[in-house]
Amino acid sequence: MSRENIETNHFFQPAGLYVHIPFCIRKCPYCDFFSITDRSTIPGFMEALIQEMSMTGVFPFRFDSLYIGGGTPSVLEANQVGRVVETAHRSYRILPGAEITLEANPGTLRFDKLTGFKSAGINRLNIGVQSFRDAHLNFLGRIHTGRDADTAIKDARKAGFDNLGLDLIYGIPGQTKKSWLLDLQQAVDYAPEHLSCYMLTYEFGTPMERGLRKGFFQALPESLAGDLFEATSAFLCSRGYQHYEISNFARSTDFRSRHNMKYWAGVPYIGLGPSAHSFTGMKRSWNCRSVSQYTENLNAGRLPVAGEEVLSRDQEMIEAVYLGLRKADGIAAEAFEKKFGVSFHGLFGEVIADLRKKRMMNATKTRCALTCRGMRFLDGIASRFVQRME
Q1: What is the pLDDT of residues 43-75, one digit of tens each?
Q2: Which of 10, 165, 225, 367 could form an SS bridge with 171, CB 3.0 to 4.6 Å?
Q3: CB-based contact 72:107 (threshold 8 Å)
Q4: Mind listing the pLDDT tens digit for each residue in 237-290?
Q5: How far apart are CA 84 and CA 292, in angstroms?
Q6: How many CB atoms sit inside 10 A of residue 205's CB?
Q7: What value does the mean pLDDT take over residues 84-97?
């Protein structure tokens, strides 16, 4: 990355700052994010991370979000998280009122740790509950129980967190609509400000994907998984949540994930830590997927960048369509036309008309957005848009 590669039209937009903490107590069999279980390397990693922050603080962005993800960031002690937050404020132009999020696993939380995270400057906590049912948690390889999740959520409230997100997973083999709605009801009973509901996917090369291929279990039928998606939206919307992105729900606009919205809107972000990605408006880069290599590079005064690419106009158009269709707000035709110099409705008019007829899209002259049913078939619909560009 270099300052010359930052697009001027993104210069005045607040960017996002992401910190990847690549440590887990045990790696979940469905997860393909980079992480390791050897926590003895945390002290060396912390020093390297602080060094990376000092070396990348030259970028002329203002930041209104800091997201500490993983891995399992909550394996860190509160003073270590505090050091990350403090160094971020010292190294970057972080705006007053910035959203500062920490991902947490219920199996790593204690009340004193939660109060420490709050004192360290974390103002948004995202707890990876995944399910309240122990049978499902065992299948997912989680280290916590449903009771642990209950305790963690209640302790988070007692510790003063008033912006709380819960992550849940559906589409688990053997799951029924009834059991999933019970999980959702239990989550809603805690009145979280945000809910992320992800469909279980079998990422190539993960232990769970290998188990599926070997016939150790059967995936939930695609039609049932799709029904659960629509049931999720109907259930949460009827209880006051906004379905603002395909997998995300917020109690109000104020509680939408400010950081994640940057990914879907094509706003710049800087990624720190092993495997983290950065995007400066036109150029994307990514760090090495190795804690030892990451630490070695930074100890030698080198940034741990493993690769980079400058997006072509076609790539930018494809991403704008795919990411825009993920959002309930959809795609703004005027912004698309201004950026790419093509008529939005001239290019996609036939596809939009067909989708409207099938009640999969709402569209006006200024904006088009998928309905809930349309979101169910996002990949196929996005492919139809891409074909029109070819």
Answers
A1: 999 999 999 999 998 778 999 999 999 999 999
A2: 225
A3: no
A4: 999 999 999 999 999 999 999 999 999 998 999 999 999 999 988 899 999 999
A5: 19
A6: 8
A7: 96
- CATH 3.20.20.70 region(s) of the chain? 3-265
State the pairing for strand pair 124-130/93-104.
parallel
CATH fold of 3-265: TIM Barrel (3.20.20)
| Number of neighbours of residue 185 by Cβ within 10 angstroms | 12
Amino acid code (one letter) for 323: L
Following CA atoms 144, 147, 151, 152 in sequence, which dihedral angle do they give, to the nearest 10 degrees? Answer: 30
Q: Which of 313, 198, 316 is nearest to 265 (CA)?
A: 316
Q: Kindly state the tokens that stand for 30.
A: 């469905």
Look over the chain and give the mean of its residue pLDDT values, rounded to a whole number: 94
Give CATH 1.10.10.920 domain extents, the chain. Answer: 313-389
Phi and psi angles of residue 60, each rounded to the nearest 5 degrees, phi first: -85, 45
CATH of domain 313-389: 1.10.10.920
Helix (H, G, I), strand (E, B) or coil at 129: strand
